[in-house]
Amino acid sequence: MPRQTFGKTWWGAQWLHALREIDWENRLPRGRRYANNGSVEELAIDGDPFLVFHLRGVDLAAELEHRGLAITAEVKGAPPGLDELALAGADENEREPAPEPDSLTHIDYSGLSDLVDPLPQALPPNPSFSPAGDFRKRWTTQMRRLAKAARRQLEHGGTEAETHPTIRLTSDDKPLLLVDANADTTVIDAATVTELADLLASLGALDPADLPNYQPELAGLHATNRAALHLLQAGATVPWVFALPRGGIGLLWLPATFDPSVRTLIEHLARGLPSSLLRLRLENRQRRLSARMQARLLCGLFMDHWLREWGSELTEAQRGDKVMGLFFGAGSEWFDGPGEGAIAGSIRIWLARLHLTEGDHTPLLRLEEDTATFTLSIDVTARNDAPARAPTPLAQILQNPQWATQRGRILQTISMLGESYPPINDYVRAGASAPMRIAAEQLPELLFDVLPIIQLLDIRTLLPCGLEQLLRPKRSLEVTAKKRETSGFLSADDLFNHPLPFTRSCVPTSNAGSSGFTATPTRDLAASLPTTWGLERHCRSLPPRSNSRRTARSATTQAR
Question: What is the pLDDT of residue 270?
């Protein structure tokens, strides 16, 4: 159909402008004429940012490497295989400490962070691979439903194995899971169980009181399954994109170990699980994983199974969406249609923010007082550095040739922070030579809107001690009641005088090896209280201090 206007959106206008700048042979007017006449049926755009340089005979990677910036991995484009991800940094000859099975009986799940809603919000909105709408909303909707399903599974357990007595586990079974490069899992060394689905159904039918009568492997798998369900209930899971051996892209959901509470849980599991639970099968060889990777991958395989099983409730339209199928459907897709060549890379780039702390180096944001204003600067620390080692200023990394191989990855990480706080981009363009100056009126936005998102991803932030009082939790309302005679086990006096943390503030926690504080967002519990309690007769608003004025007003409104 003929049309006369192009580039109505900002992105479209910018794209046409870029074409005009490089249209040395004046082909753009000819293409516009074809389109105006209705001669163009379909336009496919390859999202490979390096393609235009290849077509012009420019080796961008080599040119940038001459200028001290190595981007070879980015030019390669294809995601790594599952074996590369699982074995990264592993030493096959490294001796793991002996497992501590007793630690599996003392796992506390009450400290897990609720990430169902916050985690997707840490990602940029409207990714290019989802033109139908904001994929974050679709993610959040699915995770809310999955969290409810995980809660039901934890409360009621599985009954599938009870109807299939032939797949029951016995006290002699010592299951070993073999996972291949496609993330397909096979169970061996169990008499009647060979599939992961059967194993999980059988584990759900086990009575925890009977676990001492079974082999340590079964006790470890039972604990891992419960951990996986608790992580799903908390929404504490992130996608891991990998390349399939015969083409195509796979996606596996793994624990969100950037969150400290999830990381603690995985380390707890790693200490208690036997070392013979999971092996990576590569062709005719089996590879042992480190204790931490075994716990993380095993937990991820269990989470991924439940998520795929419950994700079968996708609508007909969602099943036809390859991206939805990759995330919540079958878990593997082939993006080989017209214009789909860069979808896998776009997904990886979009998810990269959730994997910032998995690199060798992580940024450190330093907020300092400077007379009447504040300054913000960025340093870089090695992920496994001892606390006593001083961070490296970003300016030194940009200038020193010895950082050439790591500079690209570090700048990529910092550019993602710039999406949350744009002044960071100007700071980097200026060579990080002078700290960013922040006026007093800009500080609340930085502290309460920007830093919580950055710190959700486990990026360290050092704050001056002068902000300690500002960030100390403050009660927004106080609940009291007159003591009355009662014959019940719980009196109203006990109920209303119980301390409740009605606050929407930030909790300062000391950093190891530093004198600053990090802000950790807390939830407003007043909004979750039942309105039938009649709190208007028992609540009185406390005098607001500092930035808690709006919090006190909103909390009182919620209570009434």
Answer: 92
